[in-house]
C-alpha cells in the first residue's frame, strides 16, 4: 500500500503499544468496505436497513454515556501552556503521551487495528492534507469512508513526505473517566481513547480539519474555519460564493442547502452547497480568498430534519448513509426521529435499543442523533465540489441567536472591523438547553471549541490574512435570523427566505444595495431587502433592522469583560475596534 518510511515506522510503533491481534490496511475499495460492514453486522455494531427504501444504509448505536463531543475531556497539548490559550484545556505533551500511553498499552489485544489513509481536501491540491487514522472500530472505518477521501489516493497524495496527521483511536472499554481527546499540534498528532462518538473519533473532522489545521494554517499562512460554503447562481449562470460561521443550533446545515423562495426560483436563481461545516481558505494566485470543503460527507444532526426544514439534507441520507442513535422503525426497517413527521412509528426501538412507540413522553432519538451521508447524494451539491482549486469567496457571514441586540443583517465597515464582529459572535441560551435562558455565550467565529491554539493569536492571524488580501478581501457581514417580538415569536421567517438577506449581501459585494451607516456598521435601507410574497410588514422589517444603542452599550461592556480573558495576547487592534464601538453607542 505504501512504502513511506515515516508511515511504516509510526504504524509499527503504535502497533507495538496497542498490541492488536491483526492489522488491516484500508484500501478504500467497495469490496473491502462491504466485508467490514458484514463483519460489523454479525456483531451488532451495524444493522442493515431496508434495502429498497434506504439502499446501502445502516443503523448504529453508541453507548448511552457517549453521545456527544466531550469538551471537558478535549485537550490541546502544546509544549507551552500559554500557546493553548484560555479557551482550551491544556495538558503537557509528555504527561499526555504518558497518561494515554498507559491507557493504550495493550488496548487492542484481541482486536483488529485498521489503518485508514485519507485526504482532507483533494488529491494533488495545495489545499489537500493527508492523514492516517489507526482505529479498532469498524464504525469509524466505514464512517471515515463517507466523510473523507480514503485509500490509495491518500498514499499517492502523501508520497514519501512526513507531512501527515497521525491519528490514533481506541475504543478501549468506553470508560467515561478515562476518555481523552488529545491534540498535539506541534507533532501533527491526535490520540483519542474510550469514545465511539463520531465527533470524538472521526479524527479527520473536528480534531484534524479544525483543531490541528487551524494551527497549521497559522503556521503556513492559511485558515481552517468552522464555516459552511454556498454558491448563489444568478440567471446569467454566474455564481458567487459565501462562507458562513454560526455556533451550533443556528441552522448552518439548513443555510448551506437552502431552497430559494419562489420569487428567485422563477427568475432562475440556484443555490449550490459546497460544504456544511468546515472551510479551508487560502489566498489564490489572483490575490482573492479561495475555499474548499475538506470533507466528503455530512455529519448532520437528525432531529428536526424534515422535508420542509431541509429537504436536501433529508434526500442526502436516502442511500449509503449511517444513522446513529435514531429510532429504528421495525415495521419497515427504516429510521425515524423527532421532527421528521408528527407520527412516531408504532413498533420501534429507541436510541437506547429499547422497545418504544412514542406514547410514553420520552424522546425516541437522542437529541444529538446523527446521519453520516455522502455529500454527493445532496441534490444541490455544487458542481465545484470536487474542484481541487476550490471556489473564490465574495463574502463571509458571522451570526448567532440574539433575541434583540443584533439586527437581521449588517455589514462591517472593513476587514478589521469584521474580525472584531466575528470575535464577539454570541448566542443567547434558549429554553431548549439546561440552565438560565437569555445568557450570552461568546463563541468567536464559532471556533471556541475548535481553535487549536491561543485565540488571541488566532484573531491576530485573521488580521494578518486581511493585510495580505488588501482590497481583494471578502466583505464581512453579521446575521441574526432569531430576533423576537414582544410576545417571544420569531419575526423573520428564516429557512429559504434567508436568501433574501444573502441577495443584499451579494449586492453589497458588488457596490450595490442600499445601506445606512449605524453605530455598528452598515444596515440595509428599508426596501433594500426584498419582502415580496412574505407575511411580514415593512414596519416589522424596519424593526428587526433597528440598532438599539442601549443594548449595544451593554453588549460592548460584555465584550470588554470577555476580551480581558485573553490577556496581552489579544491584538491591540481588537481593543481599538471595541473602543470605536463604545464611542459609537455612548
Ligand atoms: C458539529 C459540531 O458536529 O459543530 O458539526 O458540533
Ligand atoms: Mn460543526
Query: Spans of 5+ residues with little confidence (pLDDT < 50)?
Result: none
Most strands sheet = 9 strands, mixed
**Main structural class:** alpha+beta
Give the number of domains.
3
Which value, in Å, is the CA radius of gyration?
A: 24 Å
Helical fraction equals 25-40%
Beta-strand percentage?
15-25%
Instruction: List the ligand species.
Output: oxalic acid, manganese (II) ion
Return the average pLDDT rounded to an integer: 96
The end-to-end span amounts to: 65 Å
CATH topology of the largest domain: Phosphoenolpyruvate Carboxykinase, domain 3
- Level-1 CATH class name of the largest domain: Alpha Beta
From the 3D coordinates, which CATH architecture of the largest domain would you assign? Alpha-Beta Complex
Number of helices: 17
Could you characterize the architecture of this molecule?
With 586 residues, the chain is of the alpha+beta class. The protein has 3 domains: 5-45 and 70-221, Phosphoenolpyruvate Carboxykinase, domain 1 (3-Layer(aba) Sandwich), CATH 3.40.449.10; 225-296 and 384-547, Alpha-Beta Complex (Phosphoenolpyruvate Carboxykinase, domain 3); 297-377, Phosphoenolpyruvate Carboxykinase, domain 2, CATH 2.170.8.10. Helix content is 29%, strand content 23%. It has 17 helices and 31 strands. The strands form 6 sheets. Strands 1, 4, 5, 6, 7, 8, 9, 10 and 11 form a 9-stranded mixed sheet that branches. Strands 12, 13, 14, 15, 16, 17, 25, 26 and 29 form a 9-stranded mixed sheet that branches. Strands 2-3-19-24-18 form a 5-stranded mixed sheet, covered by helices on one side. α2 runs antiparallel to α5 (138-147), α12 runs antiparallel to α13 and α12 packs across α17 (572-585). The longest helix has 17 residues, at 204-220. The mean pLDDT is 96. The protein binds oxalic acid and manganese (II) ion. Residues 69, 199, 248, 277, 299 line the site of oxalic acid (OXD). Manganese (II) ion (MN) is lined by residues 226, 277.
Amino acid at each position: 500500500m505504501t512504502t513511506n518510511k515515516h508511515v511504516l515506522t509510526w504504524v509499527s510503533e503504535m502497533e507495538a503499544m496497542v498490541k492488536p491481534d491483526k492489522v488491516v490496511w484500508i484500501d478504500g475499495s467497495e469490496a473491502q468496505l462491504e466485508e467490514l460492514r458484514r463483519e460489523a453486522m454479525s456483531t451488532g455494531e451495524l444493522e442493515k436497513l431496508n434495502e429498497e427504501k434506504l439502499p446501502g444504509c445502516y443503523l448504529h448505536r453508541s453507548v448511552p454515556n457517549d453521545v456527544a463531543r466531550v469538551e471537558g475531556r478535549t485537550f490541546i497539548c502544546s509544549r507551552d501552556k500559554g500557546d493553548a490559550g484560555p479557551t482550551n484545556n491544556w495538558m503537557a505533551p509528555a504527561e499526555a503521551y504518558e497518561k494515554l500511553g498507559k491507557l493504550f498499552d495493550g488496548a487492542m489485544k484481541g482486536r483488529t487495528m485498521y489503518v485508514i489513509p485519507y485526504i482532507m481536501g483533494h488529491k494533488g491540491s495545495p489545499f489537500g492534507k493527508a492523514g492516517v487514522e489507526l482505529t479498532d472500530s469498524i464504525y469509524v472505518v466505514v464512517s471515515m469512508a463517507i466523510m473523507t477521501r480514503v485509500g490509495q489516493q491518500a498514499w499517492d497524495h502523501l508520497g514519501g513526505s512526513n507531512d501527515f496527521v497521525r491519528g490514533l483511536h481506541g475504543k478501549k472499554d468506553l470508560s467515561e473517566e478515562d476518555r481523552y481527546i488529545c491534540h498535539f499540534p506541534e507533532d501533527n498528532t491526535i490520540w483519542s481513547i474510550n469514545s465511539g462518538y463520531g465527533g470524538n473519533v472521526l479524527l479527520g473532522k473536528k480534531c484534524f480539519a479544525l483543531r490541528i489545521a487551524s494551527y497549521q494554517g497559522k503556521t503556513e499562512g492559511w485558515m481552517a474555519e468552522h464555516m459552511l460554503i454556498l454558491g448563489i447562481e444568478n440567471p446569467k449562470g454566474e455564481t458567487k460564493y459565501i462562507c458562513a460561521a454560526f455556533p451550533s443550533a443556528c441552522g448552518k446545515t439548513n443555510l448551506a442547502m437552502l431552497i430559494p423562495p419562489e420569487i428567485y426560483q422563477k427568475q432562475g436563481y440556484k443555490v449550490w452547497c459546497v460544504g456544511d461545516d468546515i472551510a479551508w481558505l487560502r489566498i489564490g494566485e489572483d490575490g482573492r480568498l479561495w475555499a474548499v470543503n475538506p470533507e466528503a460527507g455530512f455529519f448532520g444532526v437528525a432531529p428536526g430534519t424534515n422535508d420542509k426544514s431541509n429537504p436536501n439534507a433529508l434526500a442526502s441520507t436516502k442511500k449509503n448513509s449511517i444513522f446513529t442513535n435514531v429510532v429504528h422503525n421495525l415495521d419497515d426497517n427504516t429510521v425515524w426521529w423527532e421532527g421528521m413527521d408528527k407520527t412516531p412509528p408504532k413498533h420501534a426501538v429507541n436510541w437506547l435499543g429499547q422497545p418504544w412507540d412514542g406514547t410514553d413522553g420520552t424522546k425516541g432519538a437522542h437529541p444529538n442523533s446523527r446521519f453520516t451521508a455522502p455529500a454527493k447524494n445532496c441534490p444541490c451539491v455544487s458542481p465545484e465540489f470536487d474542484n481541487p482549486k476550490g471556489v473564490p469567496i465574495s463574502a463571509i457571514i458571522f451570526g448567532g441567536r440574539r433575541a434583540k441586540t443584533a439586527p437581521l443583517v449588517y455589514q462591517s465597515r472593513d476587514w478589521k472591523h469584521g474580525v472584531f464582529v466575528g470575535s464577539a459572535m454570541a448566542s443567547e441560551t434558549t429554553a431548549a438547553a439546561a440552565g438560565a435562558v437569555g445568557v450570552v455565550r461568546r463563541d468567536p467565529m464559532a471556533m471556541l471549541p475548535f481553535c487549536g491554539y491561543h485565540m488571541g493569536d488566532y484573531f491576530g492571524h485573521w488580521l494578518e490574512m486581511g493585510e495580505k488580501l488588501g482590497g481583494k478581501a471578502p466583505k464581512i457581514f453579521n446575521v441574526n435570523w432569531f430576533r423576537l417580538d414582544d410576545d417571544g415569536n420569531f419575526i423573520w421567517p428564516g429557512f429559504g427566505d434567508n436568501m433574501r438577506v444573502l441577495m443584499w449581501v451579494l449586492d453589497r459585494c458588488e457596490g450595490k444595495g442600499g445601506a445606512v451607516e449605524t453605530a455598528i456598521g452598515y444596515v440595509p435601507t428599508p426596501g433594500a431587502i426584498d419582502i415580496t410574497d412574505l407575511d411580514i410588514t415593512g414596519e416589522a422589517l424596519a424593526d428587526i433592522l433597528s440598532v438599539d444603542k442601549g443594548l449595544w452599550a451593554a453588549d460592548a461592556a460584555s465584550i470588554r469583560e470577555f476580551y480581558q480573558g485573553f490577556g496581552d495576547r489579544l491584538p491591540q487592534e481588537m481593543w481599538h475596534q471595541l473602543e470605536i464601538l463604545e464611542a459609537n453607542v455612548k
